[in-house]
Amino acid sequence: MIKNEKIFDFSNELDSKTPTPGGGALAAVCGSLAASLGGMVSRYSINKKGLEDYEKIIEEALENFIVCKERLLELADDDVNAYNKFREASKSKDPQKIESATKNSIETAYKIAKCGYNILNNTYVIAKYGNQNLLSDAIITGYYAWATMQSGLTLVKDNLNYLKDDEYKKTFLENIKEFIIETDNLISKIRSLSDEKNHNYRRIFDV
Fold first, then answer.
1. Cα torsion angle, 195, 52, 70, 154, sign
2. Which of 16, 31, 22, 2 is nearest to 146 (CA)?
3. Which residue has the higher pLDDT, 193 or 106?
4. What is the pLDDT of residue 54?
5. End-to-end Cα, the chain, rounded Å
6. Distance between CA 46 and CA 121 in Å, rounded?
7. If DSSP states are collapsed to H, E and C, what string results for the chain?
8. CA–CA distance, 82 with 101 (Å, rounded to integer)
């Protein structure tokens, strides 16, 4: 199981000529690490003088980070299993099995994306109301959460191309469009918070 592996071993597995673990598993692990970093910022924000008014929402953010951290490690293995089921279905050449396995892959990737969104949403809370000494860590949490979400949606879109169920495909494409709008708004807000603290890397490096 991926969640029981050392980072070094997981990295070597990615860097091997095998189909799994692949991009989906990487997206999930990346998101889990983002949630861990968000958890750290949250813990340094709870019981901190001056942040008493925001303690409840920061505690809620921490709870969500913990849930996403654990769930994404499970989804990393689910992504590997989804690919293996799809490969088995493809070998059988049974259209129904292939369709079912493809939908399973899509739904697994979508769950990864949704976790990424959840982390991103809670990142805004800790970036805005949390310990400002750790704002850079909150910003990094947001960027990795965004990458997780975008990666999950990329896999959803890719697998949709293999489906014959047009109604199912249409529903997912509509969901993706809503997701993209919501997450783009969130990442813009997080970037704005960074800019307010002069964390804009273009300004820092004069580019």
1. negative
2. 31
3. 106
4. 96
5. 43
6. 18
7. CHHHCCHHHHHHHHCCCCCCCCHHHHHHHHHHHHHHHHHHHHHHHCCCCCCHHHHHHHHHHHHHHHHHHHHHHHHHHHHHHHHHHHHHHHHHCCHHHHHHHHHHHHHHHHHHHHHHHHHHHHHHHHHHHCCHHHHHHHHHHHHHHHHHHHHHHHHHHHHHCCCCCHHHHHHHHHHHHHHHHHHHHHHHHHHHHHHHCCCCHHHHCCC
8. 7
Q: How confident is the model at residue 204 (pLDDT cuts 50, 70, 90)?
A: very low
Band (pLDDT 50/70/90 cuts) for residue 207 is very low
Structure tokens at 19: 């189909």
pLDDT of residue 100: 95
Q: Are 59 and 187 in contact (CB under 8 A)?
A: no
